[in-house]
Amino acid sequence: MNDQTTIEESVADEIRALAADRNAVILAHNYERPEVQDIADYVGDSLGLSRQAAATDADTIVFCGVHFMAETASIISPDKTVLIPDLKAGCSLADSITASQLKAWRAEHPNATVVSYINTSAAVKAQTDYCVTSSNAVQVVESLPADADILFLPDRFLGLYVEMMTGRKLTIWQGGCHVHEKIGDLNLAEQQAKYPDAEVMIHPECGCSSACMAKSAMESDCSATHFESTSGMLTRARESKAKEFVIATETGILHRMRKENPGKRFYPASENSVCEYMKMITLDKLRDALKYNQFEVKVDPDLAERARLPIDRMMAIG
Ligand code: 13P
Ligand code: SF4
User: Does domain 179-268 have CATH number 3.40.50.10800?
Assistant: First the structure.
């Protein structure tokens, strides 16, 4: 065991003791650093993490993820202490629409139903009719009346994906995630040429998703390309008979894929797909969060009440 591993183990022991002491649950997103994923009580996608936040009987939730996720946990569980180990862990996608931009957009479409990705601020959720995550966006949109005028925000690639899957026309906000939008057709083509037998999994936020969907729909055999949320990808990785996979999303997910499937090989569509916000959460900061009760994320009760409605509607659907 080298010195670095010994230090990490002792910080991990400290974290476990502090968490037990204050009855805290540690939640981590699939993009977190490997050592943070390994110490979490639950690792998952945005929907799974929201469900865990709703179900836990812990007094404190330490959210190893980005700010909108901790905010969502606090909206769902207002009586719990919700901590994020680094307040600077933001999200470029959530930042791509503000509450005042949404207000102006809604004023242009007064009869529209507003469907927002969970990657939004509490203030945006408070003006939303339905929230969605990447794992239930299609299902939620399909549950709305066929003639509904839908404003979909903020991710344009997820919006196009939902349009293709549902056959509906949406009015889509032109936002995007700075990590996923850069994963393009060329990245995929390069990796597919290198690993011709690999199954391809694409997160719908990716820049390559719409072109790939169109291509998949035209080809008679689309069995090698799958569009999945991060947890959907993990399930497919376990269940698929394929031995090799090209993964188009943030590279943090490869840790769990490799750990859970030692006999299979996983290649990122692009090595550079790293979300610096997710990687801001380190073991040291997680330990300090528990030790010094920092940094608490709390949403104003009036705002939280309005922001909760679209989350509850989403959770009731799927
Ligand atoms: P999911 O984990 O829900 O697929 O979302 C990915 C994401 O963008 C998180 O920031
Ligand atoms: Fe936001 Fe993109 Fe990072 Fe996910 S990967 S937290 S969408 S910036």
Answer: yes
